[in-house]
Design goal:
By secondary structure, the protein is α/β, with parallel strands linked by helices. The chain is 38% helix and 17% strand. The chain folds into two domains: 158 residues, Aldolase class I (TIM Barrel), CATH 3.20.20; 128 residues, Aldehyde Oxidoreductase, domain 3 (Alpha-Beta Complex), CATH 3.90.1170.20.
């Protein structure tokens, strides 16, 4: 099926904070707290849950601390700070100096938190764990997007995410300038090499039948087909795929394949994309480049909590 601009919103998106279920956010922060003070996930039962160290302080004492960037980074996940704090009690005051998507320098004071010292001591690590992880994803994504230069190619994430954290990690990709590919199995028909390997019919026969069936059964979804050789492209185009996924193609192969597809379907390049190869791939102007490393290889950002 020829590509057209009306498909864009179904192809890619950027999750906004408002898209994330607040009840789910509360649940994962509750689980993080229970893991820390009650041994969530362990068969053995904790005889005296809590934090005996912070209990040495009076529950009426208050304290203040700042979240400080130890390196240049692109922020993500700041909305989790008050949600985490609420799991430990009330009486908090949080002042944010930046917002998600901002890139800050080393030494920047990201936020100031004031509240009961006992609870702040318990919440400290959970807050940092969330922020460091998500900011790490956003920061790495920003690096990849910058490497694409002035190309019109958009950088996409994949489903290679931490189990249970996909929504947050994909949100962080958007804050770093990338875009979200499908959020799960449910939102696209995607025929890959393992699907093509099944059955006894020829590849072309299977493709034609599957694309036709997909259009009949799920007209609301786009159909994407993965190819790993140039000779597979024409049968896929004739079958009517909306997106052609060029998997592990060399640069010379991409230079041949992309003009063949352009205007007839959307193009996505994947497989072994690195910061070294990305600028050369982007120069060939595929519509999308998908990079699993954005989520599965992001190093946590270095954020500290300094007491005032």
């Amino acid at each position: 099926m020829p590509r057209h601009s009306g498909q864009t919103q179904r192809l890619i998106r950027r999750l906004a904070w408002a898209d994330i279920d607040n009840h789910w956010l509360k649940k994962i922060t509750q689980e993080a707290r229970e893991e820390d003070i009650n041994g969530l996930g362990l068969v053995e039962k904790v005889s005296r849950p809590g934090d005996p160290t912070s209990a040495l302080f009076s529950n009426t004492e208050r304290a203040a601390a700042t979240l400080v960037a130890r390196q240049e980074m692109t922020l993500a996940g700041l909305g989790l700070i008050p949600i985490v704090l609420d799991e430990y009690g009330s009486g908090w005051r949080v002042n944010l100096n930046y917002q998600d998507g901002d890139t800050v320098s080393a030494g920047a004071v990201i936020a100031k938190i004031e509240g009961p010292i006992q609870n702040l001591l318990m919440a400290e690590r959970i807050i940092l764990n969330f922020l460091q992880k998500l900011t790490g994803v956003a920061t790495l994504t920003k690096v990849y997007c910058t490497a694409a230069g002035s190309s019109s190619t958009k950088i996409l994430d994949t489903r290679k995410t931490t189990p249970g954290f996909r929504v947050l990690e994909k949100y962080a990709v958007g804050q770093g300038g990338g875009y979200n590919h499908r959020l799960g199995l449910y939102d696209r028909v995607m025929i890959k090499d393992n699907h093509l390997a099944a059955g006894v019919a020829t590849q072309a026969e299977r493709l034609t039948e599957w694309v036709k069936r997909a259009r009949e059964e799920r007209p609301d979804l786009l159909v994407e087909v993965e190819v790993d050789a140039i000779e597979q492209i024409e049968p896929v185009l004739e079958a009517g795929a909306d997106i052609i996924l060029l998997d592990n193609f060399s640069l010379p192969q991409l230079a041949t394949a992309l003009p063949q597809v352009r205007g007839r379907a959307w193009t996505e390049v994947s497989g072994g994309v690195t910061l070294n190869t990305l600028p050369r791939i982007a120069a060939l102007a595929p519509d999308f480049i998908s990079v699993g490393a954005l989520t599965h290889s992001a190093v946590w950002a270095d954020i500290g909590l300094d007491w005032l």
